[in-house]
């Protein structure tokens, strides 16, 4: 089958990205009727609907979702290719990442990056949800996982590592001599499967489903605050809480640090890999991590 017309593909890419015929028409400088005509021609060519049309919104069909990501990436690459070579094609670098990585490691370093690139506005957003680059105004994201996300370029930053930490006040309640002694104290987020991994690595029997209830918090930052207040033992990343460990407000009772096979990765659509702002941020992150071994 030959490639559909560029006009139809342009219309489909804009509607799929905005999930709106009106916004797509405004962006393309076309009437909404013209955009709808191009989509209808493309649907007839493919023999399947691309959008589910509802009263106040539209959504991609299964076929539409199949074609949307590569089409959006292709136009992203075209915009990149034909942009001004000497210009920074992104005046605002918007970064999305999980709250713990943002608060404990990235945000203290972003000022340094922005000062080195004063012509670039930097915006940091935090969320536990995966970014949909086709629909959200996000330049890059930092995700935790295995680095395999279809259609995205990914660069490994650091391993996800963790070890128990607690306040000195809580530690004084019992004589902590071996890892099994931690089971005599309240553990934060006992449903976290990483507890079983750490305990196993430390030679302690620990049930996959802990029998006792406990305090469950949504992020490592919240768990660290609860640990600082003496409410329990938190499973935290040492790299992220060096200040607390150095000042003694948190203590790491055992040197054992475990990994779960996941890591933090810088990701963005393949079509954006040559954008100057993203290249600069990528180089900055890798330099910072190289100078900050775990």
UniProtKB/TrEMBL annotation:
Keyword hit for Translocase: no
Database matches in InterPro entries: LysR-type_TF_proteobact-type (IPR058163), LysR_HTH_N (IPR000847), LysR_subst-bd (IPR005119), WH-like_DNA-bd_sf (IPR036388), WH_DNA-bd_sf (IPR036390)
Residue span, HTH lysR-type domain: 4-61
PROSITE patterns: HTH_LYSR
Coiled-coil region list: none
Keyword Transit peptide: no
Keywords: DNA-binding, Transcription, Transcription regulation
Pfam family, one: HTH_1
Homology family: Belongs to the LysR transcriptional regulatory family.
Name this protein carries in UniProt: LysR substrate-binding domain-containing protein
